[in-house]
Design goal:
The structure is a single chain. This protein is α/β, with parallel strands linked by helices. It has 2 domains: 4-178 and 368-379, Glycogen Phosphorylase B (Rossmann fold), CATH 3.40.50; 183-366, Glycogen Phosphorylase B (Rossmann fold), CATH 3.40.50.2000. The protein is 41% helix and 15% strand. The protein has 16 helices and 13 strands. α3 crosses α4 (105-116). The protein is globular and about 65 Å long.
């Protein structure tokens, strides 16, 4: 495998599927052939400094983290400071290629630094890049993407969108989606007692944030409010985000405090246990032009956990959730259809088992991070 510098805002131990994805790439790359630079500012980390340090030293590859705290990264000389920090690390490591996990001002600066060392780069394209990053008014971001040797995506849907934005066909690479299987090592971890008590004897629905409109998790709350025998069910929603207060208000309005729990962010080692007590994974989805569900790493995780899934027909979701095979696809925004599918799965344990087994078998066969890394290496 070629030596790569993996650069991203998103990396463990921060919670989130995309953080897990890039951590999985680093862990599956050949030893001594990868170093990681996390570009999120120190003030953006949710993890405590000691937790970050403990995680970083436990990995078998170097992890470098941005320590700048300014709310605006490139203000008061920070641009030069950050660029010099990167060049110092890059000269010691001598990478053959840089891979950027996201489009950002930091990525543009570091790509220019790499160019001074004649190091090419590739970039991952995300759903919110379509309008937020690559519109004609974002000329610097467009120039950065168009200068990449490869533009990686995890779905055919994203590849089509990239072509429509003018990215050359020969630079777009659709990777086989991968996920790091960490379920076995954490399967015996105990959830908090309050969560276990709420789940006991219920059909457990599970939704995973971030709490943003494109996930449509507010529709899952609405669906629970319409279930005829809602005492049979409990919905857990994990994560956080700008819609947290809205979800709280919906729960209050519908008097669902005993039927819906917002767990907040779950540490990564608890996530497999949360999947383990769940019966159905829900991600109703919401159609948006400015924030697209490119694929949905949470759907990969649900598949690995062997859960049947109900998901909205948005973005690249249909490339993961297979209608009638691993779950059900519904029209985004249709609470009635969501309720119907929840009831269908709740009434048939054999159906849940069959769909869940199919999902796990497909995940084991197709969502192997080793395949993802091999596909990346071929194009570098």
């Amino acid at each position: 495998m070629k030596k790569i510098f993996l650069i991203s805002d998103f990396f463990r131990p921060e919670p989130g599927g995309i953080e897990g994805f890039f951590t999985g790439i680093a862990r599956h790359w050949e030893k001594y052939q990868v170093e990681v630079l996390v570009t999120a500012r120190a003030s953006q980390y949710m993890a405590a400094p000691e937790e970050l340090k403990s995680f970083d030293v436990s990995e078998n590859y170097p992890v470098h983290r941005n320590s700048l705290r300014n709310s605006t990264l490139f203000f008061g000389g920070n641009e030069r400071e950050f660029g010099e920090y990167f060049l110092e690390k890059a000269r010691k490591f001598s990478p053959r290629h840089m891979i950027f996990g996201n489009i950002s001002p930091a990525a543009r600066i570091l790509a220019a630094g790499g160019a001074s060392m004649s190091v090419p780069y590739s970039v991952f394209l995300d759903g919110n890049d379509f309008k937020n990053r690559l519109g004609f008014h974002r000329i610097l971001d467009r120039r950065f993407v168009m200068g990449a040797k490869n533009v990686f995506t995890l779905s055919r849907y994203m590849a089509r969108g990239g072509r429509e934005l003018g990215i050359p066909e020969d630079r777009i690479v659709v990777l086989p989606p991968g996920m790091e299987n960490r379920w076995e090592e954490n399967k015996k971890v105990q959830l908090p007692e309050a969560v276990r008590n709420s789940a006991r004897g219920k059909i457990v629905l599970f939704g995973l944030g971030p709490f943003i409109p494109r996930k449509g998790l507010d529709l899952a709350i609405e669906a629970v409010s319409r279930l005829e025998n809602k005492d049979r069910f409990h919905l857990f929603i994990s994560g956080s985000g700008p819609e947290y207060s809205y979800y709280e208000e919906l729960i209050r309005i519908h008097d669902l405090k005993s039927h819906v729990t917002l767990t907040g962010f779950l540490p990564d080692h608890l996530l497999p246990a949360m999947f383990g007590v769940s019966d159905i994974f829900v991600q109703p989805g919401c159609e948006r032009e400015d924030d697209v569900e490119g694929l949905g790493t949470a759907l990969l995780e649900a598949s690995w956990a062997g859960l049947p899934t109900i998901a909205g027909r948005v973005g690249g979701v249909e490339e993961i959730v297979r209608q009638g095979v691993t779950g059900f696809i519904i029209e985004p925004g249709s609470v009635d259809e969501l309720v119907k599918r929840i009831c269908e799965l709740a009434e048939s344990a054999p159906l849940r088992k069959r769909l869940g087994q199919n999902a796990r078998e497909i995940a084991e066969k197709e969502y192997d991070m080793t395949r993802t890394c091999a596909a990346i290496d071929v194009r570098l």
